[in-house]
Design brief:
Helices cover 48% and strands 15% of the residues. The protein has 778 residues and is of the alpha+beta class. The relative contact order is 0.10.
Length: 778
């Protein structure tokens, strides 16, 4: 069995058996191989660089537009934040990733080519090459072995997780992270400050390329510092690394503060259910991306953003490394006290017990014991498996061999343990095994206590950090495997491992999908406000892509978050309500691009007052709608409400929630009930408007509303009967967190108001976060 010494001298002898002979030429040869593999995978993309987009015309178009925007706008200043989507909403760049760390690579390409598609496609392919090359440099620094570095580069640059993340270029752009680790390792080795500068710059750029990496990479680096700096007591180095980290954070600070302010203004949050949905299953390591050529059939416990299959060959290499490390740790003489030894033995007993429970369920199915002196049951293997794994993990952490490895700052032991820790964090706040909740909280639940972490909806993306650690461990193992071997043996090892590793993440090709067609007359739209119909999904992605590339402001938008009014706007276009246009025509002309294949949408646009057809082509018609003036509805002072009454179930949906001055609670009337609310002001008053606060439930904006008033509760007068979508759009634009629907009507005396909604879409819930009655506008 191989021994591990974690010394560069272990493998320095290896390099002289490789051709070419110098470290620089070895790196160049490896880089050329990475480029060749990428060119084969991306041959369709390379053949259509300027007319298609890599993978699909969805998220890639959004990120392509952002990269193009970054290349021609100075970061940090106000105009940079005004990405021209969701007009007239401000600071829309903060609705998604800003990708500045990736723009360091993309901007020069954009300046040379001027083509956002060429830029995006080349950068997408470059992420494979650069990730492999960065990993090569890191592992070569750690081992001195070109063979180990080459294999590590293949394992990381062409890992299976990259195929599952092809639509998300920010997840592909993981090449700064290995360079950050390289800077740290090199600094500890020779103490030169230039390595700290590399670390700070690479950490900052990785965090700026991918918002998830700001947290996830920082967690990995925190563990790294504990293992390599704190444990051996290198306090001066700790201070210098902390200083470099602060320096790297300085350019990020104003961006983070802007994101916090914008998200707070709009009330953007990720709910716990959403975070759990994008967490990995324990068995997710057996879920391979379906596009893989050789492993696409392996689809066990798959969940969104959590296809964690590491690759069969990589798993074998890492397992062999773990076995070698495990034997070394096991053979380390016990130096712990009796209490630690006793605790470890008890943990092994606990592990054996839960192992027996697992076997019993597998052999005999669920069982229950209900004796007078003993009650026990096992309905599945999920919970006992978690307890078994927990007991073994704690026993490992208490082992004398592991403590000895920590004392000598063993590199391979750290990356094996870090890979495990990063995998545990992919499991999210509650651990799920084979689709069944174990009821056990995962480590990610503790991480969510940190500010901002609850805004990251996909814990499964922590696997990017695991992939880094696994590739490093595999490279170090190969470096040990070939150390001192003959040139023939090294060549044979590489000829076997390289193609085998490539099969782990191989796909027939990276697809190239046609880019959206151009609008009929883009020159007429430059600098204008434009809405494209229909709204929603891929239509919005194409619309904002055309706007950013063409130089106009798009009412359409697609991003990680969307403004509160956008659901009401989409509803207006679906039911052909003029509210889709009026709020945007108050101060200027509005241009409309509508698909010719939808005659009902075309007729909807053509019936607008003053609509003029300005251009058309094979897929769309382009119109100009003239300015209509006017202002959003307003009202006077708030009139106190004495009580509310409803025909809905009062126990399950308390109507008092509509009067508690809390926008996060709501009264809600389900679809199968009489969706009606009666307001009592106590005494007659001059009323002029009713206000429905949707709060955090902005998606429940009503289409129509009927409002009646009465002085005595017997004779009722209809004061409004019709669409309220324009008011819903205006209210959510004005105050996103309140998302009010202010419905004005003619001023008159009334004590009672009766509000109901009718003819809504299926499954509409009449929602009231807060109810208000207002006096007429001054």
């Amino acid at each position: 069995m191989l021994a591990y010494t974690d010394s560069r001298s272990l493998s320095l002898a290896t390099t002289r058996y490789l051709l070419p002979a110098t470290p620089r030429s070895q790196f160049v040869a490896s880089l050329l191989f990475y480029i060749a593999v990428t060119a084969v995978l991306g041959r369709d993309v390379l053949a259509r660089l300027s007319t298609a987009v890599a993978n699909d015309p969805g998220d890639p178009l959004l990120t392509a537009a952002i990269l193009h925007w970054n290349a021609f706008h100075l970061p940090w200043i106000d105009s940079w934040w005004q990405l021209p989507m969701f007009h007239p909403t401000r600071d829309t760049l903060a609705f998604s990733e800003h990708l500045l760390g990736l723009s360091a690579i993309a901007a020069p390409i954009a300046w040379i080519t001027g083509n956002p598609l060429v830029t995006y496609n080349l950068v997408t392919l470059l992420t494979f090459v650069l990730s492999a090359a960065a990993m090569y440099l890191l592992v070569y620094r750690l081992s001195g072995s070109a063979a180990g570095a080459f294999i590590a580069g293949l394992a990381y640059g062409f890992a299976p997780f990259r195929i599952s993340q092809l639509p998300h270029i920010q997840m592909l752009a993981g090449f700064w992270a290995p360079l950050a680790l390289l800077g740290l390792h090199a600094f500890l080795e020779d103490g030169r400050r230039r390595w700290l500068a590399l670390f700070a710059a690479a950490w900052m750029l990785q965090a700026a390329a991918n918002g998830y990496a700001l947290v996830f990479l920082s967690v990995l680096l925190g563990l790294w510092v504990i293992w390599f700096v704190v444990a051996p007591g290198r306090w001066k180095d700790l201070a210098m690394i902390a200083g470099a980290t602060v320096a790297g954070a300085v350019p990020l600070a104003p961006i983070l503060l802007k994101y916090i302010a914008v998200h707070d203004y709009h009330g953007f949050i990720r709910g716990p259910d959403e975070i759990q949905q994008f967490s990995a299953d324990v068995a997710g390591v057996l879920c391979a991306p379906s596009a893989l050529t050789f492993w696409g059939w392996l689809r066990v416990a798959c969940r969104p953003e959590a296809e964690l299959f590491p690759g069969a060959v990589l798993a074998l290499l890492v397992s062999a490394a773990a076995v070698g490390v495990g034997i070394t740790i096991w053979r380390t003489p016990a130096t712990a006290g009796r209490i630690i030894l006793w605790v470890r033995r008890m943990l092994f007993v606990v592990a054996a017990f839960y192992g027996a429970v697992v076997l019993s369920v597998l052999m005999f199915g669920p069982w229950r014991i209900a004796w007078p002196f003993l009650r026990a049951s096992a309905s599945s293997t999920a919970k006992p498996l978690v307890m078994l794994a927990t007991a073994l993990l704690i026993a490992l952490l208490l082992s004398p061999g592991l403590r000895a490895a920590a004392r000598r700052s063993s590199t391979i032991v750290f990356y094996l343990l870090a890979a495990l820790a990063m995998w545990l964090l992919t499991l999210g706040p509650t651990i799920i095994l084979l689709g069944e909740s174990t009821g056990r909280r995962g480590p990610y639940a503790a991480l969510m206590l940190l500010p901002g972490v609850d805004g990251l909806r996909a814990p499964g993306r922590f696997w990017m950090m695991s992939a880094i650690c696994l590739a490093i461990a595999a490279g170090l193992y190969v470096a040990t495997l070939v150390a001192g071997r003959s040139r023939r043996v090294v060549t044979i090892v590489l000829l076997v491992l390289a193609p085998a590793l490539l099969t782990d993440g191989w796909v027939p090709r990276i697809a190239a999908q046609a880019a959206p067609p151009p609008v009929p007359d883009p020159r007429a739209l430059a600098g204008q406000v434009v809405i494209e119909l229909p709204l929603g999904g891929y239509y919005d992605i194409a619309a904002q892509w055309r706007a950013i590339a063409g130089g106009w402001r798009s009412i359409n938008g697609y991003s990680g978050y969307g403004p509160a009014y956008y659901v009401a706007l989409t509803s207006a276009t679906m039911i052909r309500d003029d509210a889709a246009f009026r709020p945007f025509q108050r101060d200027r002309d509005l241009h409309v691009v509508v698909q010719s294949a939808d005659p009902m949408l075309v007729a909807f646009v053509e019936r607008q007052p003053g609509a003029v057809l300005t251009a058309s082509n094979h897929w769309a018609r382009q119109y100009r709608l003239p300015r209509r003036g006017g202002v959003a509805a307003t009202a006077g002072a708030r009139i106190p409400i004495v009580s509310l009454e409803t025909m809905c179930d009062r126990e399950s949906d308390p109507v008092a929630f509509a009067l508690d001055d809390d926008e996060t609670t709501r009264w809600v009337c389900p679809p199968n009930a009489r969706q009606e609310l009666t307001v009592d002001l106590g005494t007659p008053a001059t009323v002029g408007a009713f206000v429905q606060h949707l709060g955090a439930y902005y998606w429940e904006a009503p289409y129509t509303m009927i409002i009646e008033t009465s002085l005595d509760g017997a004779a009722w007068t209809v004061v409004h009967d019709g669409s309220v979508l324009e008011h819903a759009i205006d209210g959510a634009m004005r105050a996103p967190r309140a998302a009010t629907v202010l419905v004005p009507f003619a001023a008159h005396e009334a004590r009672y108001l009766r509000v109901r909604v009718e003819n809504q879409v299926f499954n509409y819930h009449f929602t009231m976060a807060e109810a208000e009655v207002r006096a007429p506008a001054p």
